[in-house]
Amino acid sequence: MSENDNFEVVEEFDVEVTEDGDVIAEDTVATIDTDTGEAVIDDVIAVEAADGSSFVEEVISTVDAEGNQTVVADVVEELDAE
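and the corresponding structure tokens:
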């Protein structure tokens, strides 16, 4: 057995279109240590507005064994309508 047998990777993907025609996509990937409950979560949200502008936000956080979440990185990239 490898030393990584105690990790589980979970992914969830969702897309929504708002009444205004904006498209919101969210992709969340979590790697969980099944022995300790600690985890690393990578959450990416992409929004394309009806006017053509868009942004992408990526938040990477950790969760300790007690359930306390800490944001390690939060990056937003905005793109203007062409």
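(Above: one complete record from the training split.) The chain has a mean pLDDT of 91.
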